[in-house]
Amino acid sequence: MVRIALAMVLGVSSSPVVLAEEIAFTYRPSIAVKPGKELLLKGVRGQACTDPAPEWEEVAAKLPLSTTGTFSDGGIGTVLSRKCGKVVPARGIKFTATTKGREKLTLFRDRVAVTVF
Length: 117
Hints:
Low-confidence stretches: 1-19
Structural class: mainly beta
Helix content: 10-25%
Number of strands: 7
Number of helices: 2
Strand content: over 45%
């Protein structure tokens, strides 16, 4: 009885703890952003529907070069995969605008029109 009361006081629980709200990545076919600003472009799932989110290094190695900005790790979240027919774990792709201009990029088979103004 004392252990249960102590666990309640200390906040100890046998259920998993959620530290932050999970990010649900969405694909953005076009963006317009000012230099210095960043935003999430999309999430990338693993090869198989049951795979965990890929590591950032694996995603970064397959990204194109950009003349208007840089890519960085957008963290772990989820995407609604058409191929899998369900929500699956994913790694986010964050874009940080650096140079004014326009370009069209292909990120894992999805086209993104970028305007940095």
